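Checklist before submission:
- one chain only
- standard amino acids only
- sequence pasted in full

Submission:
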Amino acid sequence: MASRKDTLVRRASRVRRQIKAVANGRPRLSVHRSSKNIYAQIIDDVAGKTIASASTLDTDLRSSLKTGADTEAATAVGKLLAERASKAGIKDVVFDRGAFIYHGRIKALAEAAREGGLNF
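Returned file contents:
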């Protein structure tokens, strides 16, 4: 019987494999959530570099948020990431949810990033 960690790793690699098939050179918006915070970054897989990143640990957001583990915090991170991506000249990305289902905080971050101007 596979452990929970093995299942999550397998799911994340399956999602990443599908993303690389449809990316067409677009950077990847990778999302990670923990029980206390949420992190997002835009990665150029060709160059292996992070273009823009945002999390609830950023000093800009930390003081204005009640907690880093709710949909309000995820929305703020999505907006901040979209703003930083537009400064870097990024409009089109491919969304990498990792092993997390598209629900709750992950969905809130994605919708806020779309409202901020990212296309995926």
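Reviewer check: The chain has a mean pLDDT of 95.
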